[in-house]
Fold these 2 entries.
Entry 1:
Amino acid sequence: MAIFDILRIKKKIPTPWAKYYTDEELNFDIPNISMYDQVYNSYKEYPNNTAYQYFERKVTYTKFIKQIDQAALSFRKLGVKKGDIVSICLPNVPEALISLYALNKLGAIASMVHPLSAEEEIKEKMISTKSIYLIMFDSFYEKVKSIIRNTEVKKIIFVSAADSMNIFMATAYRISQIKKFEHHPLTDEYISWKKFKRLSYLVKDKEFSKMSKNTPAVILSSGGTSGNPKNVVIQNRAFVMSAIQEDITLKYLQAGDCCLAILPNFHGFGLSVLMHTPLALGCYTILIPQFNAKKFDILFKKTRPTCVLGVPTLFEALMNCNNEKDLDLSFLKYVVSGGDILPPTLEEKINDYLKEHHSNAKITQGYGLSEGLAAVTLAADRVHKSGSVGIPLAGNYVKIIDPATRKIVPFNEVGEICIHTKALMMGYLNNESETNDALQIHDDGHIWLHTGDLGYMDQDGFIFYKGRIKRMIITSGYNVYPSHIEEVIETHPAVLQCTVVGMPHPYKQEVAKAFIVLKDDFHGLFIKNEIKEYCKKNLAKYMVPYKFVYRKSLPKTKLGKVDFRKLQSDEGEDDE
């Protein structure tokens, strides 16, 4: 972005967060390189540094680049070329990263697919993206054997979890899996990862064209502002820019440090912040293919990560682990929560836990979405306010508008969060109408992403996320924000968790309905009545939930977030 453009934006909108950056940090250039180039630069500077860790095995940048280059030749042998779309349907295993960067070197596009997707979901993804190859676990053969002929997929490359394990773990794994799943037939439609790699030896042309920062690189899935599944097309420059931004913000992250990749590769935060950014900065990523919440403390002790990012429920799980009595977390520099609202009470508990376990880190929050390549705002180190999701990353611009008029609302007033950044998506694949709804040109002449999220900005430029516009409840003409009700209810000493949704009402239009999980030591009618009175005392009358439902647990999505859609259709009564 040219300095002229930055100045023009500043004249149109307030940018109080700029005081936290130097002029050099605000005006950085995005080099004309690809994701692969950025990782290759790390290899040139830190050839012997670890690039990734998978279980007990650590792989250097030198070895990683060789793995990527070999896979790129194999893809070329299969006929993959610039602009082709190949789906990667794998958990956090080395083959997922190797394939991603190999495709990127070719100028092909990696479509990241949830490996636990249902059969029809995989089929729809292959059709909507017109993927020509699919890379997935061999144990998932049953999911695709009956659908693959109805897509444009030419061949499936099957990966085993054991392919990148050391010989002892691999042997034990293969023995344990012998009778657990149906093996794929030996036909031309399928090829193992080992045979795929050997294709590279048959390629004579080993020269590759250089890809630009504007080359499409990745497709991520998103519900967007409408909630319908869409394919988000991301360019190289978004990943390149994101790594530079996080290098600016995470000032204590150094080459050789490591990030724990618990969030999956098909999630924007997971792929960008916990995998690509470490690799772009000479750090390494610790790949976790299957997360066990009950052994989180053991995982910390084994891997000793510098940085960990997850949803709030992940950190709740950590505090409930009792496997390691004297867990030392002094190695942690950054603990970041994203993907869902972090209640103040939970934030305080996590910080107390970190301090008790010898860490100087404090949990902070970030905010983002796939359409803006995950991280848009971030709090870190001293640039932090409790409850805030941070300030815009350098080079990003955020404004809070009235959705009806597009006018910027005053500081501390809730409105829709809009984003301008060079890391914006190119658009939704083959979906012009949804793209035009999300990316809109404003009076300043710039394209702004309408997020469909509610929040406010304070005088210092800190953003406070308040939930989705669709979650906002309008009752008797009043705007009610579920997150505020949840915060109040969760301050009651008997409440472990609370989620508020809207329910129809004959004349108020909509009213609040609270789903509550009580702590183990609390139950009974007396406590329920006490919570209702607590709400009447601490909330405006129109905000008090019309109905309270008590549950043993709340439904979660595949990413560990509370599943609001299930709760909105839940008409059940209290769990006994």
Note: Residues 1-7 have pLDDT under 50 and may be disordered.
Entry 2:
Amino acid sequence: MLRCSGGGAGSPSPRGKVCGMASLLLRGGRIWTGDPGRPWARALAIRDGRILAVGEDREVLQALPSRCPTLDLEGHLVVPGLWDAHLHLFEMAMARRQVCLTGCRCREELLERIRAAALSHPGTGPLLGWGWTSSDWSDRRLPDRREIDRALGGERPALFLRSDLHSGLASTPALRQAGYLDAPPEIEGGAVEVGADGLASGLVLEMALGPLRASFPPPGGQEIQEALVEALAWLHSLGITAVCDQRLKDQSEGPLCREALAALERERRLATRVVSNLALHELEGPLPVLVGEFLRLGHVKLFADGSLGSLTARMFEPYQGQPSNRGIWLTEPPDLRQGFALASGRGLPLSVHAIGDEAVRFCLDLFEDLPRRGGLAPHRMEHAQTLAEEDLGRLARLGVVASMQPTHLLDDLELAEAALGPRTRLLYRFRSLLEAGTTLAFGSDAPVADPNPFLGLHAAVHRQRPDRMERGAWNPAERISLEEALRACTSGPALACGLGDRVGRLAPGMWADLVVLDGDLVAMAREGERLDGVRPLLTVAGGQVVFRRGS
């Protein structure tokens, strides 16, 4: 276990300095700085929350004004603090307190998990869950509302969201309280599936989820704070020191999340850098003022299309086996154009969800009409999963960051082959985007996917699931190196948020966010080993220990 000499034990504490001191020297390991001018170092000094010096032992020691506590790295690898450039913090925090349905291998197992949850949470109160997917089921038929009602053991409002949050399964009382049961309304950008009896079947898609979710009582402020504290501590244990908190379309979770985060910041209990995006509809009122070191305002989030997993991403060509399905527009093109103009007119950067190749191109056309942002936070395209050849160079030319989630690649392998066939060559084009000069910013989309950043690094480097490496890389020409993937988890997101001069690299003057790892990622990637099992020994944010293994 790593220990400081000449100082305290260094247990995590709210805004406490590492080892209980204002300064710290790290030496005896390998430090990947992420700084192109000096990518590797042997020692690093922290003072007052910032990097004081980094380099060889002698030059770092000379920069220290006096003796200070020393952390012996014992040969371990140090990297800058990792970012999750795209997650839904409120959803992730609350989902950790809901029924977990990840890993269900068939409809029967899904129903059994619901049955067990109802027994462990007896009563008639609402029940919420998340995480199921039928993509790899041999029989992809979903349970209907009657089967869900039986699993619940009676009349009970319940909603179980798919892993991508783009569809959900609801019980009869939940459909009834949302007004969906007898005569499901027409909802732009969404649908309520109707069964043979003319009533809602239980499956609700895309924008129709909004009113359904709103019919459930929201959590209280104290519950949200507690859930966020737990979730952020979990992220620290994964080496994540900064996140870009994304919004859901037409939902009200943004103000709830920011209010709870601001309260934690005031109490000096927030030790994760949170860049909080705005939903487009929030531009109708005064903008929130967030100027703290750990909490600041981000981009305006817009949505073009659906998701690949739900076969609602907007494509130029139909999905295989579904000649009438090219996906949907979550925001109709005229409204999307208006949203771009509104956000840009207020001087705010845009963060637009676009997955299908038609949605990506349309959004790039809209970016063409906007002024370049110069030294400000650049515009971003979230996901950018399907890129036609003629659009590859446009993100770099327009200064648009590609905010991508490598773990989705692992989830989409079989589904993509079945739905797109040879068009899978257009998916997750990490190498092609880098060669075109695009800035990559990697995230997880949690709770849609596992926030483990080492699983994401594995996906970007190896392009294959960890448990079946013997099959070789999927579309291997799009693999990238470990160092390139690390930059997409450190300096890339920092640049995407306009913070590239303050965080994301281990260089003098930068905020002291770093992670000490239990495995040498660089050597492991070089040897073709799986990377998903690497974990932090120590996580430091702003010069404070926020996670220490064994504490």
Note: Confidence is low (pLDDT under 50) at residues 16-20.
